[in-house]
Amino acid sequence: MHELNGYFRMSQTKTLKTKERILQLSLQLFNERGERSVTTNHIAAELGMSPGNLYYHFRNKNEIIKELMEQYQHQTLEMLALPDDRALDANDKVHYFQVLSSQLWAYRFLHRDVYHLVENNEDFRKMYPRFAGQVMQQGQKIYKGFVNAGLMDMTDSEIEALIINLWIVLTNWTNFLYMSGHLTDSNTLEEKWVWQALRQMVFLEGAYLRGESRQTYEGLLNSLGSSELFASLSSAKNTEVESPIQNISETR
Fold first, then answer.
1. Is pLDDT of 236 > 70?
2. In terms of Cα–Cα distance, which of 78, 175, 213 is closest to 135?
């Protein structure tokens, strides 16, 4: 009987390890190639297993994405938790931004392909707005904690508006990179662009910072470095835009 129990435990451990390998490799491929370009056959081939073996653990790609989304939700909300035994301080602000940036990078395919996933994955379509609401509620607690600690000066309405603006930047950043020509289907989302998104989010907070958090804010911005985005956009040639205007003036 003991031998039988030991066999089942070993079997369960092996199954869990295989499932974790599938998830880790899927996350890597989705991040590198984009979720739409990766099939379950690609994942199985990279793992050196048959598609049938992969289907034993996940019936389809959507199940893999659902599990990765659940991991992302759990990890992010856990990392955004408030300390139990003390008030928030300026270092916590840096910590939360670092946590957020690391999560954005680790699960970057979710934000790069978010609209496609919402349209084509029923589980994701249900999970995403719920997750967004949970993050916003947690963000509200964090900002109220900073206000109570004298690190920020904001009304409840300003906190709500700031959180929505941060979420808009967060969820639309990849689309902005596509539209501005910094990201194409032939290249991948580089880590520097994630840091640039973080930089924009930090700037949104600037007007509300007080006391020690102001110095921390300046230090964080210096660590993020300068942005090449505005310079590259403002220096771009606008010949396609200018031509129609010129044509109109010539016909008068």
1. no
2. 78
Q: What is the pLDDT of residue 239?
A: 43
Residue 190 · residue 177 · CB < 8 Å = no
Contact between residue 137 and residue 167 where contact means Cβ atoms under 8 Å apart = no
Residue 80 · residue 170 · CB < 8 Å: no
Tokens linked to 218? 């300046």
DSSP conformation letters of the chain: -HHHHHHHHHHHHHHHHHHHHHHHHHHHHHHHH-GGG--HHHHHHHHT--HHHHHHH-SSHHHHHHHHHHHHHHHHHHHTPPPSSS---HHHHHHHHHHHHHHHHHTHHHHHTHHHHHHH-HHHHHHHHHHHHHHHHHHHHHHHHHHHTTSB---HHHHHHHHHHHHHHHHHHHHHHHHTTS--TTS---HHHHHHHHHHHHHHHGGGB-THHHHHHHHHHHHH---SHHHHHHTS--HHHHHHHHHHHHH-
Q: At residue 202, what is the residue type? A: V
Lookup result for tokens 């035994």? 85
- The 10s digit of each residue's pLDDT in 39-49 is 999 999 999 99
Q: What is the pLDDT of residues 53-102, one digit of tens each?
A: 999 999 999 999 999 999 999 999 999 999 999 999 988 988 888 888 78
All structural domains of the chain, each given as residue ranges with its CATH number in brackets, are 1-59 (1.10.10.60), 64-234 (1.10.357.10)
